[in-house]
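Researcher: Please predict.
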Amino acid sequence: MSYFLKHLLFSLFAVAVGLYFYIQAGTMPASAALFPQLISGLIFVLAAVMSFNAWRSAPPEAQGAKINVARVCIYGAMIAVYIAVTEKAGYFVSTPVFMLVSYLYLRAAGFFKAVLLSAFFCAFVYVVFVWFLNLPVPLGLLEPLLGA
């Protein structure tokens, strides 16, 4: 499969996801629908830009990198486990563990940097969504400590 075709297929997938959220936002009250519709519009624009850039700068076919299917499947299973565990264990327990394991598995960061990124991201999410916006986040095991 060519470089451009891979990016085009991913762009079409992104547009389909954006379209789904745009349609679902239409069933919400107008004030609640604005943000998902704006994000959907952003997804549409970014998908078009990605397709254009892939078309413009497609490398020759011989330079295509092989995809490690086993690694992709294992990471997909990790995402599925994270989604399944988040409700019971809580967002602030499962997310740092998932982020740490992901950074290490994907070799994106060293252990210390992965711990710092996970901790800062979760602190940011807590401050913005729980403390500032008062939005519900699954607390799971931390309910007695953080819940009201």
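Model: Residues 18 and 43 are 6 Å apart (CA to CA).
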